[in-house]
Amino acid sequence: MSEPNTTVADPTNTPPGGSGTRNNPLKNALGGSAGRSLGLVLALGLLFAVGAVTSGDRFLNVENLLTILRYASIIGVISIGVTFVITAGGIDLSVGSVMGLATVVASLTSIQLAATQSSWLLMVLVALAVGAGVGLLNGVVIAYGNVVAFIATLATLVGARGLAELISGRSTQIVTNRDFLKVMRGEFLGIPVLVWIFILAAAVGWFLLNRTTFGRRTVAIGGNREASRLAGIKVKRHLVALYVLSGFSAGIAAVMMLGRTTAGTSTHGLLYELDAIAAVVVGGTLLAGGRGTIMGTVLGVLIFATLTNIFTQNNLDTSVQAIVKGMIIVLAVLLQQRFASARPSKRGG
After folding, report:
1. 187-188 and 191-192: which strand pairing?
2. CA contacts within 13 A on the Cβ side of 208
3. What is the mean pLDDT of each run of 10 residues along the chain (349 residues)?
4. By the 8 A CB rule, do 162 and 154 touch?
5. Helices marked H in the chain — which ranges?
6. Angle at alpha carbon of residue 121, lines to 196 and 269, rounded to 5°
7. Could you tell me the maximum CA-CA distance found in the chain, to the nearest angstrom?
8. Packing angle between helix 62-87 and helix 235-261, nearest 10 degrees?
9. Which of 135, 215, 277, 303 has the most CB within a 10 Å radius?
10. DSSP assignment of 145-182
11. For the chain, first and last CA: distance in Å?
12. What is the DSSP letter of 38?
C-alpha cells in the first residue's frame, strides 16, 4: 500500500505579503499601542519645538514646564477615570460638574470647621465620597435603569451643577484650613504634590487596566457586551463599578482643585468633561469601546495642556485655540475609524 502524498508546509517559507508579516515584531509593535504612543510622543515633541521657537526661554523655563504639569494634572486624573468608562463602551459627561459639586461640599464652613478640629483629611474624604456617590448614581441608572449613558450623565451634568449653585448660593467659598493647603500646595523632590497625585493615579490606572481581571473585563465589555455576559461576566455590576471609579476620579480632581485655587465654587470643572473626553480619544482609546490606553490618555492630556500654554504664552485668541483643539479631535476620530476598518472584526455580531 502506497503512502498518501502529504505535504507539510514550511512556516518559514511564506510568500511576500502573506501571513509571515504577522511574525515581524517591529511591525506588530509599531502597528499597535507602541506605535500609537510613539506618534503621540512625536506630536508632543513637535509642540515643544513650536513653543521653544515662538516663546523661547519663557516656554522652556522650569517654572513654566511645572505650570503645564500642574494644569495637566487635574484634567489628567479626571481623564484616567473617563478612560475606563469609554473603554467599556460608555460615556461620562458629568465629571466636570461632579468635580465642581465636590469642591463646594468639601469647602463648606461646617466641613472645614470639623476638619480643623479633627484632620484635614476629612475634606479629602468628603470630596471623594461626593464623587463616588454621584458615580454610583450614574452607574445604577445606566446599568439597572437601562438609561442611555449619554442621557443619564448629561442629566447628572446639569443636576450636579445646579445643586452646587444651590448649596454655595452662587458664591465662592475660600479654603481656610492651613494644613490642607500646606499639603496640597507643597512640593516633593521639587515637583508639586498635584503632579505626584497625577503620576500615582496614572500608575494605578495603568496597572488596573492592563494587569488585572477588572481591566480585562472592562475591555471585553467594550468589545462585545452580550458576549461578555454569556461568558459569565456580571456586566451590570461591572458598569456600576466603572462609573463609581469615574466619579471617584472626579473627587480626587476636586481635592486637587481646592488645593490649587484655595476655593470651592460651582464654576469649577466647567467643560472639563469635554477636555477629558478629547484627551482620551486623542490618546487612542476607542469611542466605540474595546480598546483603552492609560499611557495614551496621559500623552493626550499633556498635548492639550502644552497647546494651551503655547497659546497663552503668545497671547493668541482662545477662539483659535478651540478651533485647533476641534481639528485635533476630528483628526483623531478619523484615524481611529481608518484603523478600525483596516482590522478584521473580532466581534461575534
Report:
1. antiparallel
2. 17
3. 42 43 52 69 86 82 90 95 96 96 95 92 96 97 95 96 93 91 90 95 96 95 92 95 97 95 92 92 88 92 90 80 79 66 45
4. no
5. 25-30, 33-55, 57-60, 62-87, 95-106, 109-117, 121-143, 149-168, 178-184, 193-210, 213-223, 225-230, 235-261, 272-283, 294-313, 318-342
6. 60
7. 97
8. 160
9. 135
10. S---HHHHHHHHHHHHHHHHHHHHTT--EE---HHHHH
11. 49
12. H
What are the cell numbers at 280?
482620551
| Cα–Cα distance measured from residue 61 to residue 313, given in angstroms and rounded to the nearest whole number | 12
Place of cell 493668541: 316
Residue whose cell numbers read 519663557: 58
- Cell numbers at 329, concatenated: 479631535
With b for 16 or more beta-carbon neighbours within 10 A and e for fewer, the 115-149 pattern comes to: bbeeebebbbebbbbbbbbbbbbbbbbbbeeeeeb
